[in-house]
Amino acid sequence: ELVLTQSPGTLSLSPGERATLSCRASQSVGSNYLAWYQQKPGQAPSLLIYGASNRATGIPDRFSGSGSGTDFTLTISRLEPEDFAVYYCQQYVSSSMYTFGQGTKLEIK
Amino acid sequence: QVQLVQSGAEVKKPGSSVKVSCRASGGTFNTYVLSWVRQAPGQGLEWMGRIIPILGIPNYAQKFQGRVTISADKSTSTVYMELSSLRSEDSAMYYCARGTEDRLYFGHWGQGTLLTVSS
After folding, report:
1. A100, B50: Cβ pair inside 8 Å?
2. Which entry of A87, B11, B87, B99 is 20 to 30 Å from B40 by CA?
3. B111 chain-A contacts, CB cut-off 8 A
């Protein structure tokens, strides 16, 4: 069973700083089928990054994704106040299944 | 503009069943993956299962096999999720989500349906 482990659990930063979030897979993720989602309080998640490094429609370029194999990173180059939220990674597993990481909460320091 | 509109909040007794709906508009319905994802209070996201309406064959996460039924009504562009033998641990927000064209991710989400299971 594929497990996605996100770190850190909570990240405390100030607006303007750079955020680096990690997602590690328990086995190699085929063809980089990895996505990142942002979830703000009281809202549904929204797609940020797909295919490990492609920004979804309308996502600002301060968000970037990188990585391959088992190690993936979401970077927010310069934090805006609206970026403080919970972030999840997600992977498509074979046999039409999907799995999520447990999330990283990005909070204002 | 793709929209997914879910049915309203539910309160159920332990041991009963619930059926939640999700009506899609503003895009093609039949060929996209429609999934259900739940989120317990203060917890992460958990994928439950999916269906492609034109195929009509659902896939379920192992954890929910035997307890969840996902179906689709092409005539009304609505997907349903029925969860049986409810217990308190099923209290959560339930989201429907439409897959991306490559069926690998979740590009559009419903607003969520809050289920409370309590005696």
Report:
1. no
2. B99
3. 44
Spatial separation of the C-alpha atoms in residues A51 and A73, rounded to whole Å: 12
pLDDT tens digits, residue range B39-85?
999 999 999 999 999 999 999 999 999 999 999 999 999 999 999 99
Lookup: tokens for B31:
């060929």
Q: How many CB pairs under 8 A join A and B?
A: 54
Distance in angstroms (rounded) separating the CA atoms of residues B11 and B99: 28
- Cα–Cα distance for residue pair B92/A80, rounded to 1 Å: 30
Question: For A69-85, what is each residue's pLDDT tens digit?
Answer: 999 999 999 999 999 99
The residues facing A38 across adjacent strands are A46, A87
Read off φ and ψ for residue A14, nearest 5 degrees.
-105, 155
Task: Please say whether the beta carbons of B119 and B12 come within 8 A.
Answer: no
Whether residue B6 contacts residue B66, with contact meaning beta carbons closer than 8 Å, is answered with no
